[in-house]
């Protein structure tokens, strides 16, 4: 049973990260279209951003947290290991990042987002760093 839950956790994690990588990239293009006054492109990005956030990104995050919680229930001794504490901190930061993405989604929808496409290019790199550290922590369990 544990391996099935782990597989589901990994599938949800891959899906969540794909969305975490793609949504800020859409924000890059949205900000560029905004700066050029391309209303048709802006309308298209608004639909894509909303569908990605609500239809893929959020359900994937919920699945990651659910299956991760089940794995912790099955392997409670992990809670005493430092690598897991570091991983859970990064997951909490990713959940916060996920919600910051919602803030930007709402700002774009309301025409209030003033962040530049350059900002969103840098913002887009944060989940990459988190993914690298999380995978190394989970695989190597260094402490």
UniProtKB/TrEMBL annotation:
List the catalytic activities from the record: protoporphyrinogen IX + 3 A = protoporphyrin IX + 3 AH2
> What does the record give as EC number?
1.3.99.-
Keyword terms of this UniProt record? Cell membrane, Heme, Iron, Membrane, Metal-binding, Oxidoreductase, Transmembrane, Transmembrane helix
GO annotations of cellular component type: plasma membrane
Q: Which residues bind heme?
A: 9, 87
Say if the entry is tagged with keyword Transmembrane: yes
Task: Name the InterPro entries on file.
Answer: HemJ-like
- Compartments reported by the entry: Cell membrane
Q: How does it sit in the membrane?
A: Multi-pass membrane protein
Q: Where does this protein have coiled-coil stretches?
A: none
Q: In which pathway does it act?
A: Porphyrin-containing compound metabolism; protoporphyrin-IX biosynthesis; protoporphyrin-IX from protoporphyrinogen-IX: step 1/1
Q: How is the cofactor bound?
A: Binds 1 heme b (iron(II)-protoporphyrin IX) group per subunit.
Would the keyword Cell membrane turn up in this protein's UniProt record?
yes
Q: Name one GO biological process term.
A: protoporphyrinogen IX biosynthetic process
The main location is membrane
Q: Which Pfam families match?
A: UPF0093 (PF03653)
GO MF annotations for this entry? metal ion binding; protoporphyrinogen oxidase activity
Which cofactor does the UniProt annotation name?
A: heme b
Q: Which residues cross the membrane?
A: 6-28, 56-76, 88-106, 118-140
- Its top-level enzyme class, in one word, is oxidoreductase
Q: How does it assemble?
A: Homodimer.
What the protein does comes down to:
Catalyzes the oxidation of protoporphyrinogen IX to protoporphyrin IX.
Q: Member of which family?
A: Belongs to the HemJ family.
This chain's protein is named Protoporphyrinogen IX oxidase
Native species: Halomonas campaniensis
